[in-house]
Amino acid sequence: MSEISLNNVCKSFGGVQVIDGISLDIESGELVVFLGPSGSGKSTLLRMIAGLETIDEGELTIGGKRSEHLAPGQRDVAMVFQNYALYPHMSVRENMAFGLKNIRMPKDEIERRVNDAARILEMDALLDRRPAQLSGGQRQRVAIGRAIVKEPAAFLFDEPLSNLDAALRVRTRVELAELHQRMQSTMIYVTHDQTEAMTLADRIIILNDCQIEQIGTPMDVYLYPNSRFVAGFVGSPGMNFLQAELSGTAGKQQAKLGDGSQIELSVDLGPGAYELGIRPEAVRVSATPAATTGTATVVERLGERTLVHLRLEDGTELIAQDGGHSEVKPGDLVHLTFDTSQLHLFDDKGRAHHAK
Ligand SMILES: Nc1ncnc2c1ncn2[C@@H]1O[C@H](COP(=O)(O)OP(=O)(O)OP(=O)(O)O)[C@@H](O)[C@H]1O
Ligand SMILES: [Mg+2]
Q: Domain total for the chain?
């Protein structure tokens, strides 16, 4: 049975719809990420599950229990926010115990839960410190500890790492992934950062324009985006988009690029003008004449690989990938090959058609 189910939930603020009929089943133990641009309704959807926003229409089930009319405290979930706001005058132990004391839980049960949470988070040695005596990452762990002690059916995280600096964000992200593996608990994690989504999620739910744009595993949405929007949103650097004219018949088609070069491919589409999408790693620098040539404008060395920004003869810009020891310099004319198994064509409605 699903741990959390949404059935056709809707939400408007002052007549403006922000969630438009979303249905979704989250399995027990799953880590699901809501990913989408700013304003796409990620926090609103999470807050509707937590009970911090009302649900205008539709059904919510948590742990098998209809929950849309329950108060936040009656829903079996715990939320961790971006601004974790710990009580500065309380120790870590007291911060974690606070919510449980408020509901008059017996003392020995509180102690057991706080000790369990501290062990899970590897914070045993820090229990008597005040928040001011902790690093940013440790403070965020205390905030997660406050959620763990509630022993909820599901954890809800709203951009919990966005206040941390870049290096700490990466470390804490790994800690969270480990925590999820240890606890095997159901988690919903909201972020606008596609790297966070790719690295953490069992499934990514991509939100756009009040609706779910795509649901899939990280590699599903990366390899088989079902729209121009998803293709452009997932992956860093982003997918290249080029204008293409498709001709030929099924099984043997040609996509003609703006610079006149032709790419052979096979895709379930009729002739016409499309947008062609290809990720930088599928455009490679070749030592010998290949599909087309471009002039290198910027060469970004990332260590293990090199990103070569190029301009084709007609002015089309794209990014290709070369090895870490690439010899390409700005101004060089380079040959380019396209991995035609990684091509996508987008029609005028933005729907994706994957090359075979
Ligand atoms: N209390 C509110 N009253 C009116 N409009 C709201 C309210 N809360 C959110 N909105 C609007 O609803 C839409 C979705 O907001 P939401 O906060 O869910 O987006 P988000 O995806 O979490 O964005 P971000 O990545 O910036 O956090 C936005 O257009 C926002 O302006
Ligand atoms: Mg938000």
A: 2
